[in-house]
Design goal:
166 residues; mainly alpha; three-stranded antiparallel sheet; 5 helices; elongated
């Protein structure tokens, strides 16, 4: 049976074989059998769509960020890039790569240009300061690179979306 319970888990699990023989086994994340069956059916339909219709699975912004950070461990500026990506996560965290368009990027860039205040525990209180242009350009570079990662070689998204970041 492709829907089962493990001894050490209250949740239902799925066990599906793809058309090319790969085994997909994962938790449904629920202990309700009806909801687990719905999850199973959706997953099986998605696998069928990918195999028979050639549809690509949709990948999220966070997946691209994790993959990019993993591939760029050698970078000297990785900590700075992480800070920029953390800031971008407020706007793109729940987005799929194929949903990111030029309007969304323009809105994010405009938000980044807004003055900000640095909270300080010591020293004089500073007023609002605008973001410097290099900071904005570095943010756009990080975003462009992550969305480009979804197109180059991985096949995550069909059309190049990285032109949105220019």
């Amino acid at each position: 049976m492709s829907l089962f319970r493990r001894k050490d888990s209250p949740n239902w699990w799925v066990d599906i074989r793809t058309s090319d023989g790969r085994r997909v086994q994962s938790s449904t994340g629920t202990s309700d059998k009806r909801r687990a069956q719905e999850y199973h059916d959706r997953l099986k339909a998605q696998i069928w769509d990918q195999a028979r219709l050639g549809l690509k699975p949709r990948h999220g912004w966070r997946e691209a960020v994790v993959r990019w950070i993993h591939e760029k461990q050698h970078k000297a500026t990785l900590d700075d890039d992480r800070a920029h990506l953390r800031w971008l996560d407020r706007y793109l965290g729940s987005s799929r790569l194929d949903e990111i368009d030029i309007d969304m990027i323009a809105e994010i860039t405009q938000a980044r240009r807004q003055p900000y205040e640095i909270p300080r525990s010591k020293g004089p209180v500073e007023g609002l300061r605008p973001h410097r242009r290099p900071s904005i350009e570095r943010l756009r570079f990080c975003g462009r690179f992550c969305t480009r990662l979804g197109t180059s070689g991985s096949g995550w998204i069909a059309a190049p979306r990285s032109q949105c970041w220019r």
